[in-house]
């Protein structure tokens, strides 16, 4: 599997990224930045992720100035992003901790403003894309208020990820695109008269253009904050389906003792969640390479891996290769030795020590579990609380909102046995 970290630029380059807007961009995947780069006329293929983030941040901030100013000061950094948001939202001050909410408010107001210009079918499509049923209100402000009331915490994510019909109506003018380009550096004296003429009738276009950029930035920010994709990886019959049922309440109907019962990549959104996804894949080899491009995109955006090993089968060559592939992705990986209830007590410590040694798994990222134990051997799943605690800790460290992680069902799971030292 390709290493997605290889595209992130040098460590020195990333250390130079200090602006809050640019720090957001370096937490995104390069393909997620492509639409914004295309809109701003920034070449996305050159340099590392740090360079791309800096270029996007600089050009996005410069949009807060009028084209006349950009025609002469295009190489400047532009105002701070909080200043841009305060100007666009009409608020006197925006704090850094308020940025996500203000961006969503700007997008919501823009959507409401353009709502009347949508055809009935367009309004219904947008309403359904938000996950809402019934007929949408005819007035934009009422539609956004109802959507926010019904979606709650998921409103910002759903709104910024939904297709916005008004986006296609706010275009980057050729004058600005030329003024911020290298060629524009040579032509700025000649463009001065044209820029002055533009000044008198482009105020509204400037606002829509800047709102368009805020829409893209808000989409990226909501993805970084709220979208969580957990990858369950392991050979057939290791118990991945049982793990998904126990941890996320998803009953795939595929819990089967027959080896090879899971042969494809399965992507599911957790019931009741807005942006929590679970990916079930039998490995990272030929099966993954043969999936659709859409599935590959999801796999590329997995935030954390839960790698499941069957305690009865042990760590074989395939398990070791797939586990190493997960580690090579640069994403956090928790190794789970499942079905430990089936091991003889006298063999358990020796087996766990051997498995952790073969995987070279850090102690903090290695847990013995039993997601669907024999009723005669355990009253309920073993190790669920520890797995959930690991997910919360690691995802919090990634800056994710973990509020959509489901609570553990039923009574508290019995604690897992202490880990042996290899």
Q: What's the short story on this structure?
A:
The chain is 50% helix and 8% strand. With 422 residues, it is α/β, with parallel strands linked by helices.
> What is the radius of gyration computed over CA atoms, rounded to a whole number of angstroms?
25 Å
- Average pLDDT across residues? 78
Q: Give the biggest beta sheet.
A: 6 strands, mixed
Low-confidence stretches: 1-14, 67-75, 169-181, 183-187, 195-203, 255-262, 410-422
- Provide the CATH topology of the largest domain: Rossmann fold
Q: Can you count the beta strands?
A: 6
Portion in beta strands: 5-15%
The CATH class label of the largest domain is Alpha Beta
Structural class: alpha/beta
Number of helices: 19
Number of domains: 2
Overall morphology = elongated
CATH architecture of the largest domain: 3-Layer(aba) Sandwich
Strand order across the biggest sheet? 2-3-1-4-5-6
What is the N-to-C succession of helices and strands? Answer: HHHHHHHHHHHHHEHEEHHEHEHEH
């Amino acid at each position: 599997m390709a290493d997605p970290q290889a595209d992130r630029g040098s460590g020195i380059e990333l250390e130079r990224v200090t602006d809050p807007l640019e720090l957001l961009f370096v937490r995104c995947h390069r393909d997620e930045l492509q639409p914004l780069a295309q809109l701003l006329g920034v070449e996305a293929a050159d340099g590392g992720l740090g360079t791309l983030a800096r270029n996007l941040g600089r050009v996005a901030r410069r949009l807060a100035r009028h084209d006349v100013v950009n025609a002469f000061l295009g190489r400047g950094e532009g105002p701070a992003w909080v200043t841009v948001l305060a100007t666009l939202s009409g608020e006197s001050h925006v704090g850094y901790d308020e940025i996500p909410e203000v961006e969503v408010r700007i997008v919501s107001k823009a959507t409401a403003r353009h709502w009347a210009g949508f055809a009935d079918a367009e309004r219904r499509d947008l309403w359904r894309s938000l996950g809402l049923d019934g007929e949408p209100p005819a007035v934009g402000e009422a539609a956004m208020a109802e959507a926010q009331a019904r979606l709650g915490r998921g409103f910002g994510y759903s709104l910024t990820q939904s297709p916005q019909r008004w986006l296609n109506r706010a275009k980057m003018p050729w004058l600005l695109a030329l003024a911020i380009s290298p060629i524009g550096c040579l032509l700025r004296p000649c463009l001065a008269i044209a820029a002055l003429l533009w000044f008198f009738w482009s105020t509204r276009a400037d606002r829509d253009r800047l709102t368009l950029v805020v829409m893209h930035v808000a989409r990226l920010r909501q993805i970084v904050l709220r979208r969580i994709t957990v990858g369950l990886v392991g050979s057939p019959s290791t118990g991945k389906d049982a793990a998904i049922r126990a941890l996320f309440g998803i009953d795939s109907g595929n819990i089967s003792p027959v080896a090879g019962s899971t042969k494809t990549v399965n992507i599911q959104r957790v019931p009741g969640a807005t942006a929590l996804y679970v990916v079930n894949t039998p490995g990272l080899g030929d099966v993954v390479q043969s999936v659709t491009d859409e599935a590959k995109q999801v796999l590329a955006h997995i935030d954390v891996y839960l790698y499941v090993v069957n305690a009865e089968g042990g760590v074989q060559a395939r398990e070791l290769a797939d586990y190493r592939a997960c580690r090579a992705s640069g994403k956090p990986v928790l190794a789970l030795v499942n079905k430990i209830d089936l091991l003889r007590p006298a063999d358990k410590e020796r087996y766990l020590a051997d498995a952790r040694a073969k995987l070279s798994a850090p102690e903090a990222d290695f847990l013995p579990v039993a997601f669907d134990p024999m009723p005669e051997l355990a009253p309920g799943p073993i190790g669920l609380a520890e797995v959930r605690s690991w997910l919360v800790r690691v995802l919090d460290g990634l800056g994710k909102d973990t509020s959509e992680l489901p609570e553990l069902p039923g009574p508290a799971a019995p604690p897992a046995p202490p880990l042996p030292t290899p």
